[in-house]
Amino acid sequence: MITTIKSNINFFIKTFGCQMNEADSEKLKALLIHNGFNYSDNFNDADIIIMNTCSVREKAEKTAFQYLNQFRSHKRDNPEKIIAFGGCIGQEKKKELLKKFPGLDLVFGTESLLKVPSLLEEIRKKRRRIYDTEWDKENRIINENIPWVKNGKITGFVPISRGCNNFCSYCIVPFTRGEEKNRPFISVMEDVEDAVRNGIREITLLGQNVNSYYDGDKSFRDLVGALNKIDGLKRIRFMTSHPRDLSEEDIQMMNKCAKVCEHFHLPLQSASNRILELMNRGYTLEEYDKKIRYIKRLKPHTIVTTDIIIGFPGETEKDFEDTLNYVKKTEFDSAFTFMYSKRPNTKASELEDTVPESVKKRRLQDVIDLQEKISRCINEKYLDKKENVLVEGICKNEKLKLFGKTRTGKAVIFSGSDELVGQEVDLKIINTGPHTLAGEII
Ligand code: SF4
């Protein structure tokens, strides 16, 4: 429920981390605008500076604290400003942050988003410091429909679940976002219908494990099937699929729905079964590979992207070679590659970190180089091909250029009228690069 606070205050949001955090920041932005606050994209102009943080990797955490210190020194010259710190680090460190960082006014957790406007009002009126990191442990469902704001955007994120029950041994998410909770089926439907009314043409359904979504007898497949029928919605994407839970029935259903784009994001993490077991991933390489082959068999042009962790405790040169060889054989369209970093509370943090930093760095670079080569070759195959592109906007620096994405998620730039924004157009690809394609209207 939205409480309406009459306010004429500017706020700024700095977001760190994954798509779920981006989605949360967008929701928070809409919520604050509906409550009469004004958005500013420059923290110097803002009365309230909000940080939505990520603790998945140590580096992300360090970056967040660097920004916090920058905002605190800005506050020294502007003491009336309010600094709010939320998201995964807020949830993890709770009130300890208020003690450690004078100048910080609000710490909010991953389930406190809807309360932020009223918490900010309380701070403004009473000038007291607050933390709110409570979780609702009784409810297994979440209600969070916040009306969309028309802002010219064509694509939007729609969380369908929060939290995770998987406890992969390296991952902090179950500790910062709690157990998996699903949004009611009807609430997701209404949210997407509202998004379409506000100009959104492509949605990405978000969850740590979208395939385990359920509401009563409704599954992820039922949800996608129903969303596929919404008038005005052109494209549906989803992430992340868990390799253990993505079923052949799921893959068949995604292929049947015309609006579902030909893209699966299926995190591999490692191609060594020994490491997969230590990671508590719940699948073997052979099971993972079977799913990839099934996806490609049903629709060969479907792309698969992945995540890989390098240097997990105990990873030998042979384990790493297995991963490298599998990446070579499978030809992922792209891969997010990460160096393992120890996270508090996780099972893996009890393991001895056997891989020296220099070895981790070298292995990471090897896999990045290989993937770059593969991605470049894949993109070259688009040359002279016809591609259907959803036009998302006008490039900032090149007035005549529009940008959009193919159904397989490739970014394309091309010349055209701004009236095309929000429409799907057929393009011939005339140039390719490792990350972007160039096209012309057919
Ligand atoms: S599936 Fe594993 S890696 Fe993904 S959020 Fe859950 S615990 Fe973390």
Quickly describe the structure:
By secondary structure, the protein is an alpha/beta fold. Helix content is 34%, strand content 23%. The protein folds into 3 domains: 10-132, 3-Layer(aba) Sandwich (Rossmann fold), CATH 3.40.50.12160; 155-380, tm_1862 like domain (pyruvate-formate lyase- activating enzyme); 386-441, Nucleic acid-binding proteins (OB fold (Dihydrolipoamide Acetyltransferase, E2P), Beta Barrel), CATH 2.40.50.
Structural account:
This protein is α/β, with parallel strands linked by helices. It folds into three domains: 10-132, 3-Layer(aba) Sandwich (Rossmann fold); 155-380, Alpha-Beta Horseshoe (pyruvate-formate lyase- activating enzyme); 386-441, Nucleic acid-binding proteins (OB fold (Dihydrolipoamide Acetyltransferase, E2P)), CATH 2.40.50. It has helices at 19-34, 58-77, 88-93, 96-100, 116-126, 173-176, 185-197, 220-227, 248-256, 273-278, 285-298, 317-330, 357-380; strands at residues 10-15, 38-39, 48-53, 82-87, 106-108, 130-132, 155-159, 161-162, 181-182, 202-206, 214-215, 218-219, 235-239, 263-265, 303-310, 335-339, 386-394, 401-406, 411-415, 424-432, 436-441. A six-stranded parallel beta sheet has the order 2-1-3-4-5-6, sandwiched between helices. A five-stranded mixed barrel has the order 17-18-19-21-20. A three-stranded parallel beta sheet has the order 7-10-13, sandwiched between helices. Helix 12 (317-330) links the parallel strand 15 and strand 16 (335-339). Helix 8 packs parallel to helix 9 and helix 9 packs parallel to helix 11 (285-298). The chain binds iron/sulfur cluster (SF4). Residues 164, 166-168, 171, 173-174, 208-209, 242 line the site of iron/sulfur cluster (SF4).
